[in-house]
Amino acid sequence: MSARGVATRPRATPGEGGAGSLADAPIGVVPIIWNNADLPPSKPPLHPSTVLDEIERLGFAGTQLGVGFPTGDELRRELSARHLRLAEVYGAIPCQRDGPAANAPEVARRHLDDLVADGGEVLVVALERSEERDAWVGRAAGAPSLTDDGWTALGDLLNDLGEEAGRSGHEVAFHNHAGTFVETSDELDRLMASTDPRRVGLCLDVGHAIVGGGDPVAILARHGERVTHVHLKDVAPGPAAALREQRLTGFLPALQARVFAPLGSGLLDLPGVLAALANRRYRGWLMVEQDTSWEPPSEAAAVGRRVLASTLRWMTAGTRLRAS
Questions:
Q1: Residue 97 within any structural domain of the chain
Q2: What distance in Å separates the CA atoms of residue 321 and residue 19, rounded to the nearest whole number?
């Protein structure tokens, strides 16, 4: 553990795992940096066409379905005109300690219907944030957790959803998230044990993993074969420490304190994560994400895109030098 209380390891050097096998992994963006649905609006939202124009300009290959985006054929046309793909649709399932809410299957299938209608590729599923867990964000070890029946019910729902998605040629990937009943590494382990690997993949959000007290590289060592989708975002040490020390409470206050930082500027071992993915021959999306930023949204997204690309180039160059 570091002095900040977050698990760390020596950072990867060029040639340790390399990144050559990630050469074909497309780089996308989660457009929450432009219009964040989690926070009360402080200014008028940007028009979806403006957001899509910026995503194209910055060189991303695809995007998550964003706030206010058109749907169906209109969205397909807007994406095609910018040579973009709909990498994912994100959906949150209502869930309390005893398991998913009665309407959770309907909510989940509505998100799947959106994915199919919009021509998306991966259905990313998380749990809705829980009031019971919100006070434990960033220090969730020992927090109220799902009951045994709750874990069983959640696993059954996700397995059913994965089977249904597979019939239309789509994947379901579960997303760990702070302020929910799958925040900590132990909870993620339990989720993986409760679901069928043939039906349910893992969307590892490395930023939420760190906030939950976990080590993304260690998670990849345990569950790398389940990872089919990745959200890459960094974590600012100051707000993370404030959460652990109870000087800051709640997920939304943490967002307002900019707990998620530009790639390369915080606690994330980005080379280590990329090396672990490369060692697993990962071919899925690398989604750059930053929920909030002190910088203008497009500037923050550009930084993330460039840091990721430069880290991949640096690691690949190191691998080539080592092989020569």
A1: yes
A2: 13
SS3 of residue 136 by DSSP: coil
- Flag whether the pTM goes above 0.90: yes
User: Per the domain annotation, does 248 fall within a domain?
Assistant: yes
The total number of structural domains in the chain stands at: 1
CATH number, domain of 188, equals 3.20.20.150
**Is residue 130 within 8 Å of 95, Cβ to Cβ?**
yes
Which secondary-structure segment (H or E) carries 230?
Answer: strand 227-232
In a domain, 11, yes or no: no
Region 280-308: mean pLDDT is 96
Task: Answer yes or no: is pLDDT of 3 > 50.
Answer: no
- Please, are residues 287 and 30 in contact by the beta-carbon 8 Å criterion? yes
Question: Quick one: which of 49, 121, 48, 44 has its CA closest to 90?
Answer: 121
DSSP assigned state of 7? -
Whole-number Cα distances in Å, 232 to 102, 138, 287, 293, 312: 32, 18, 6, 15, 13
Q: How far is CA 72 from CA 65, 114, 152, 298, in A?
A: 11, 8, 34, 26
199-235: per-residue pLDDT in tens?
Answer: 999 999 999 999 999 999 999 999 999 999 999 999 9
Residue 1 is assigned to a structural domain of this protein: no
What is the extent of the structural domain holding 279? 20-323
69-90: pLDDT as tens digits: 999 999 999 999 999 999 999 9
